[in-house]
Amino acid sequence: MSTVRGSDQYDYNLQLHQEQKALFALTNQQWGAYPDHDYHALQTKTLERLDQDIYYIQQLNQLLKSYPASDDVGEGLTWSLKTNKMELVLSGARELIMDDEAFIALLEGECPPMLNNTFQFPVILGDTDSIYGSSEASFLSAALLTINLTLLGENTHIEDLPIHLSLSDSMDTVWMDYSALSHITPIPAFVALESVGQDFKTEFSYYFSDALMQDGLSLIHSGYAFGGQRGEVRFDESKNWGPEDCSSWVSKVTNCDVDFSTIDQLFTYRMQFPSDEKVLIYSDWLGSDRQAAMQTVYSPVYIENPLVDIHPGQIFAYREFADANHLDDVGIGGHTGVVLGVKENGNVVILCYGRDMPEYEGFGVREYNWQSDETHEVMFFDVNQEKIAFHDVIHADSDIMHDFDVLATASLVSESALSATAAHFYIPAWDESLNTLHMSEAFA
User: Fold this and answer.
1) Segments forming the whole domain that contains residue 208
2) Looking at the structure, do residues 284 and 364 belong to the same domain, yes or no?
3) Fewer CB in a 10 Å sphere around the end CB: N or C, the chain?
């Protein structure tokens, strides 16, 4: 299965929107056949099911604390499993279902009035006027799935729902393999699932198993999962509409040969320091294929004047530190993305994947300080790859000037920067999918 190209992020958001529309229709259809149309009784049963699922994910996540994560297949948990946010997602769904007005709207196949699911692109991460770019999209998906599973019956799992996506009727696949709102990540055989509970596999709505995967977790997401799809083998490459994180996206969009982290970006940046300036770089990184790949693709850039030295298409990154002692430490987290432009105050505007639930989640636009400070080491890189015009990679239905007008309306970019960016925005050849990570989760 081919990977989603960077230019298809418009299509990702549209796919998520269309899948939720299909779930609205399915909910209304199943509700129409529900005995006596007793919505209070259904609401109670749905909340009971949610409470059971929340209990099981709490127990599973407690168990997973005993196991390490790894990028290498079979060496540990996938990062998306280790850092899953399913408890938060299901709790957010519970709040929706507890609200009578929202619950009735869902049964009628409509978006609850307190949410705005009007499709939009580009997404401003954290925009309170839309579910896209916030965790509300994940909460809404989980609420719709839980209601439908309750209507379907006890001991059902999300793969049992009659959802039909492109090619998902194949005998070897399930609808989640083609979904923008759900992703299956493996649970390794060495994880002692029996300690979660003897009925875990039958009662937990998001447990998964088939011929390709002995045990798995069906994640609900809005485009982001920490670690992206590292360490997974269900797909030959990576999944269409699958989740990404900040560094996994930047790696793909710049055609880098390695799945790097922001620690690798830090080491690449530190390689420019004078030899007599002592900075920490892991000895096993020096001389490695990872170092070679990073230095082939990325050239550190020194920023003296942000309005002159920062350009669209550069890579922005930072590492976060616990204190001001940066040079002999690698930090506690990080973030990276593709530069769109710079504001008149010097703040840099980037495209990225990120997650800081419930404020924002997914792929979109964020703004950051361009300067390092006591707890952040900020870095910029030029990309040593063939570059193509932004017009060649944005979706045909998305007018570039309109997109930047949206950004201007959101007060993210100055008018002067907009005109320059629209005319001169160049980025590395977009190869596969997109990805970014917020510092609150910056483990990359």
Assistant:
1) 6-243
2) yes
3) N
Q: Which of 228, 243, 258 is the last residue of a domain?
A: 243
Query: 275-285 pLDDT, tens per residue?
Result: 767 789 999 99
| Residue finishing a domain among 187, 215, 243 | 243
Share the mean pLDDT of the chain: 81
Cα separations (Å) of 367 from 216, 287, 376? 36, 35, 15
Most confident of 6-15, 137-146, 221-230, 396-405: 137-146
Residue type, 444: A
Q: At residue 42, does pLDDT exceed 90?
A: yes
- State how far the Cα of 244 lies from the Cα of 354, in Å rounded to an integer: 9
Asked whether residue 1 is domain-assigned, the answer is no
Dist CA 97 CA 150 (whole Å): 12
Q: How far apart are CA 284 and CA 98, in angstroms?
A: 53
> Can you list the positions of beta strands (E) in 235-331?
298-300, 315-320
Q: Which two tokens stand for residue 323?
A: 């204190």
Residue 358 preceded by cis peptide, ω within 30: yes
> How many CB atoms sit inside 10 A of residue 236's CB?
9
- Torsion angle defined by CA atoms of residues 322, 439, 257 and 223, in that order, rounded to the nearest 10 degrees: 160
The structural domain count of the chain equals 2
* pLDDT greater than 90 at residue 96: yes
**pLDDT tens string 342-386:** 988 889 999 899 998 988 888 888 999 999 999 999 999 999 976
Same domain, 98 and 206: yes
- The residues, ordered by sequence, that sit 6+ positions from 329 with a Cβ below 8 Å of its Cβ are 280, 321, 322
Of 93, 114, 105, the closest CA to residue 46 belongs to 93
For residues 331 and 266, the answer to whether their CB atoms sit within 8 Å is: yes
Return the top range by mean pLDDT from 33-42, 203-212, 394-403: 203-212
3-class DSSP assignment, residue 2:
coil
